[in-house]
From TrEMBL, chain A:
Residues 334-459 form the Checkpoint protein RAD24-like helical bundle domain. Residues 24-34 have a biased composition (Low complexity). One of its GO terms (cellular component) is Rad17 RFC-like complex. Belongs to the rad17/RAD24 family. It comes from Lachancea lanzarotensis. Keywords: ATP-binding, Cell cycle, DNA damage, Nucleotide-binding, Nucleus. One of its GO terms (molecular function) is chromatin binding. This is LALA0S07e06832g1_1.
UniProtKB/TrEMBL annotation, chain B:
InterPro entries: AAA+_ATPase, DNA_pol3_clamp-load_cplx_C, DNA_Rep/Repair_Clamp_Loader, P-loop_NTPase. One of its GO terms (cellular component) is Ctf18 RFC-like complex. Pfam families: DNA_pol3_delta2 (PF13177), RCF1-5-like_lid (PF21960), RFC_C (PF22534). GO terms for biological process: DNA repair; leading strand elongation; sister chromatid cohesion. Residues 35-196 form the AAA+ ATPase domain. It comes from the Eukaryota. This is LALA0S09e03532g1_1. Gene3D superfamilies: 1.10.8.60, 1.20.272.10, P-loop containing nucleotide triphosphate hydrolases. One of its GO terms (molecular function) is DNA binding. SUPFAM superfamilies: P-loop containing nucleoside triphosphate hydrolases, post-AAA+ oligomerization domain-like.
From TrEMBL, chain C:
Residues 1-27 are annotated as: Disordered. The lineage of its organism: Eukaryota, Fungi, Dikarya, Ascomycota, Saccharomycotina. The keyword Coiled coil does not apply. This is Replication factor C subunit 2. Residues 56-192 form the AAA+ ATPase domain. GO terms for biological process: DNA strand elongation involved in mitotic DNA replication; leading strand elongation; mitotic DNA replication checkpoint signaling; sister chromatid cohesion; UV-damage excision repair.
Amino acid sequence: MESQRLKRSLSSLTTEINGLREGSFCSSTSSSIAKKSRQSPATIAESDIKHTLEDKSHEVEEWCQKYEPHGTASLVLHQRKLQDVRNVLEPMISGNSMCRILLLTGPAGSSKSSCVKTLANEAIRDRLNTLPAPNFTLGNPRKHQSYIEYDGSAVPLGVSKVDHFNQFLAESKYRVGLNVAVLLVEDLPNLFHEETKTQFQQSLLRWLYSPQSRLPPLVICLTECEIHGSKDASYSFSIDTQFIAETVLGPEVLNHPCLRRIKFNPINKTLLKKHLKAICDRERKLIKADRWEQREAFIASIAENCGDLRSAISALQLWATTSGSASTFTSTREQSVSYFQGLGRIIHGSKDLPNDSSMINELMYSHSAGTGELLKMGVLENYATFSKGQFSLSHAVSILDSLSIADIMTMENTSTITLTESVEFPLRAVRHTFASLGKIATSSHHRPNFPRESKVRKLRRNFMTEAGRYASVSIQKYKSWHSMSNIALYYSYYAPLIRRQLNYKRKYLQHYLNSLGSDSERKKVMLSGSDLFVVNEQVDVLNRIGGELRSISATSDVVLEENEEPLDMRPHMIMAHVSDRPEAAVDNEHLSTDEDDGISEEILDPIVESASEHDTFSFSDEDDPIYDVLASQSPRKTNPH
Amino acid sequence: MSLWVDKYRPKSLDTLSHTARLTHLLQSLAVEPRDLPHLLFYGPNGAGKKTRCMSLLQSIFGSGVYKLKIDVRQFTTPSNRKLELNVVSSPFHLELTPSDMGNNDRVVIQELLKEVAQMEQVDFQSGSAAETGGLAHRYKCVIINEADALTRDAQAALRRTMEKYSKNIRFIMLCESMSSIIAPIKSRCLLVRTPAPTAQETVEILAKVAKDEHVSVESDAILRSISDSCCGNLRKALLTLESMALNNEMALKSTSPLIRPDWMVVILKMANRIIKDRSVSQIVECRSTLYDLLAHCIPAKVIIQELTLALMKEVREDEHRLGVITWAGVFDERLCLGNKPIYHLEGFIARVMCELDN
Amino acid sequence: MSEGFFNKRQKTASSERPNNEDSKPWIEKYRPKKLEDVTAQDHAVNVLQKTLKSANLPHMLFYGPPGTGKTSTILALTKELYGPELTKSRVLELNASDERGIAIVRDKIKNFARLTVSKPSASDIEKYPCPPYKIIILDEADSMTADAQSALRRTMETFSNVTRFCLICNYVTRIIDPLASRCSKFRFKSLDASNALGRLQHVATQESLNLEDNVLEKIMDVSQGDLRRAIMLLQSSSKIVKHLDPPIVTRLAVDELAGTVPSDLVSNLTSKITSMDFSEIMNYVGELKRSGWSGAAMVNQLHEYYINNDQLTKSFKNEVSWLIFGSDSKLTNGGNEHIQLASLAIGIANLYRKGM
């Protein structure tokens, strides 16, 4: 419900624009049609934004289409990022690159696809211009289609989306050499369906491993987002809550050497402002006088809380061309606040926002109850990092008390439904507590720890499986039935202990037995030790069910944990250093996931926090997705063997 | 051989060890098996509720009740989720444990009981009289372990079922605490209080088992200390005895160290840490311990109870004790109402530290 | 589907039922057969007696604490109205907690309500009034959902020519207003000791029980005005002592069966509380738990002790009440008996310590 309220998307803004427009031109371009119209071969204009304002259709045209960039110069994108993309894409087009898939990830409206389109246009035009064209059937090179977009909405009836996608890949396979075109995939099949997702990943892998020596460059633009409003409070990172490259494509595709990933950030404020101002100047005629006066302030406010170019332009258009109270338009599509950002804000406060109350408001808007649960767990896991735990117990008490009270705020009889109040209350209470402590002068925020809850759940499941095995041995072999709760409390510890001892004795006895000469002596020993020979290493459970409790000798164990942590953290550290080079980071991650896939190790693994204090890197938005993935993997020991 | 706790478990009413009063009561019930009312055994863990209930069944149906088997049954919840459940049964009874079923216990109970009633019908026609040794009791027993864990919903459903099927099914419910059982169920059952054996009784039982297993016991003192550490939980006492005997080459000296369950030791140590080092960083360390206990499926309620008892023993000042027990009461309730035990356990620890600081 | 199954089972069960009164629960056996036998509800009985004569019955709503004779009254009334034979076709009794949904109201109740009345046999007409309407009894009506209750409202009006409703509930506030306003309300008072005791005595004599002195008073005390509970207690205690030698129902047996804590244990605890030694209290509470006594019952009995103790000041009683109130609610929410009882006991001891 929340997400519906919040996700004022482009399309809803569009309809609003068309509805509110004074002239009330009958708009025939609904957003979906508009989107398709972009597919038509782009005409390459000499100068980019110069449009004839006499154009009749301009009034119904949407600005974000109208001002779609037509050259790299007009792209609203940081030059370095543009260069990054160019460096990868151009060799791909010319066929001098190992790379087969270019993956662009980032939030909505960060110019991912525009960037690809303009670059493709330029690169292919240049290429055709410089090469003597031997094949005249191509006709005018300027008419050559430099990119092909995959259109997922045009799936014929009865054909699955993935099949359609495969067909698309097969058909465009031969767009190489002179006929080269960039394959642009923005529209993905329904990846929330597990099977479809697997199939989709399979077809990408086939593409990556295809024996064909040359393939057209395939560019996938993935709009990453956190998905709110999932019905169950899920704390794990899965595609249901995190629509990001890691969950969509899976590690195998993502770590393939023939895939390059470039991450886009929300559009920089200055760039955004500049661009919006330029649009205002060009649309001078349409903008009402009073609005024209206020434009600077409005643009600034848009730029402040929105890194989404498309929605910023739409908001501007809506504001400029309609009359009505200005305040209603100043809020654009809220930027979602990621888990780590949110945590940082709750614990350390936010500099960007005027006061804590509005910060919490924003946080509440961008989180559904489900992810709110994750936030609460995060607060529990991280509140002690505030000024390195150097605050009084009474403050800790008030934080924990608010969390504890929030946990019992459920609707009557429906313990599964989480109330928003149960999220908002503790967040406000915690922020209030920390605010009263004042700002601590430690500028470097610790990297927030990830809740251990999911790890504990995994261990519990593991315990249950082992206990189930114990129970079935005990009823089949010993004819006695123990209930699960008694197994957890008593048998899980005592029974393996006893059987282990018996087993040891049995071995000893066996040894002695073998050393004996006569049969009669053997029989005597066998008879006396008949109890022992029942124990069987293969059948009986001889180890503490669920693994030893790690904290038995708590003090020494803590030392142990600390010893392990630097080891454990190593991949994180490396990653943080190389995070400005995303490709390397992805490679590295590949290493760290490959090293330790043994489940058995995990059982012995102590429950340590996901990150230690050694890790003092301040986190920037750019690192987030990697961290997300890392954090979702439980920390493991680097292979001790 | 099976564990001593199973090996020396009484199998019939005549061999039941402690609390003679209760044994008489059960014997009088067994005289007229046709009239067996629904029973509700209540008492602490390890006091012999299950043993008594099985002995009673044995005296009614014969030793067939010990021919246990496990079936995996499938259930579909109203939300269309598939649920698998292990059901332990003998030809004469079946056992249910609500904690295995989670929130769907109402569905499971209704489904299973319906099934039982149907099965019973078939039994009538095939003439089960011969199997039961001439005593054709036309009902089947349903044992509900941990009945206090049943949801209100399930209890309400049970209440009706108890009347509706009273000719076919007898319920025997086992629970530690009666407070979460609704009054209509209590009023339909014969309440059977099952006290734990007294310290003396425990020592006697331990001594007998030790003798039968040829464990030499230096003095009764060691048995007494086992009995003290187990607070009348005979299951725990026997397990302790067996593991200690094996650890000490079947010769218990008065100085042999007690073997307690590892999680108990962890909780005791945690209590000490809470008292000695009262700081935010200690809370964080305790959280790791708590998570570890939870990962080993130690119920949060047990953690808070043991922790409270340990704290009450260690803390000296009355003012502090009052604080500990009061907050234990508060957080114990929150554990029942909430979803995530860790908040409440950690909240309790923080509160206790704060109280001790005053 | 399940519905059909249940019906079948019920039929077979009833046909198989051996005709011995022994196994029959005493609450059924000694249920009043006539209106005038109903104990201590003169007001309701008088009104209903009148309606018997005029044979004109309104819709009725019976409310009051459990075990005060609500169900007995209506059952006796129907018997007097229709006689044993006609009752089967004229009366529908629904008291299922699991048959509460709106679907039941729509189908089962409506279908029954819609039926035209069957013609009574000549002999019945002679003996009984046999008014020309059916009666639907809804026991435990307060556990019906609100929408089921609203659905009932229509049904009640539409078929009022051939059907009368009798709703029975413990809490009249849980019946929606529109429904309550369509019924004449009868409040059933909690039974006073003498009336109930007489009834209990009657049962005991009929069953020729050997009773210890004051056992019946003890039973009434324990069951707190709930006659059904009292009779059930009497039956189970008689069953238990049946095979003892001598078969005498003792107060101890009653305590045991009712799950209440013997008074000497309660007074032990209270004296420990007054001594204000927290360790002693903890030990004693541990001891109580070890013997398996119910914590909830202990809390109730502590409440009785402190409230009825005239030596205590009002403000002290007030404080104690608050503590007990808290403990009781925590226990009802599923709290751990050991911790909650210890917390309560130490809380009260602390009141003494503070010198209140």
